[in-house]
Specification:
The protein is 43% helix and 19% strand. By secondary structure, the chain is an alpha/beta fold. It has a five-stranded parallel β-sheet with strand order 3-2-1-4-5, sandwiched between helices. Strand 1, helix 1 and strand 2 form a beta-alpha-beta unit. It starts with a strand and ends with a helix. Bound molecules: 4'-phosphopantetheine (PNS). The site of 4'-phosphopantetheine has 10 residues, from strand 1, helix 3 and helix 4.
Amino acid sequence: MKIAVYPGSFDPVTKGHVELIFRAATLFDKVIVAVLNNPEKHPLFSVDERIELIRDSLAQVDTDATSVEVDSFGGLLAHYVKERGAIAIVRGLRSTLDFENELQMAQMNWALYDAASTVFLPTDAETGFISSSLVKQIAAHHGDVRPFVPAAVVEALTRKYS
Ligand code: PNS
């Protein structure tokens, strides 16, 4: 079984992430969406909230996501990928700005664990400009985030910033 890990902060999950999850699910037998447990980065949503929001967001899309698992991890991604028996790390590329950082991370992860390769998927043109940080800024100022995040996340952001 070809397993891929799609790691990220997902604070919160966006429509760009969801699109990428479904695309990755067509390429691998199983995709593990792995939420980084990073309390030192002071995320807006807890790990449990982020996991729940991803699950709700996937359920809201009328596509078969039975091959998608949502989990969390702490420590090194390379260790988690090995533990889960994955052969690939999926990362989305929005632009050349992403590429510089992503290439370095991919090479470092390869140096740490060379049984898994990083696979870059270009983001969809319709969602490629979305970022969780910008979405949080917009929500904090009571802007309309509905075009950028799934409905479950719209509700969660509204609750956080009300
Ligand atoms: O959504 P993000 O914040 O861009 O995801 C970054 C993530 C989670 C992929 C990266 O920070 C990560 O892998 N962190 C785990 C710690 C680790 O393995 N660091 C070395 C990476 S080369």
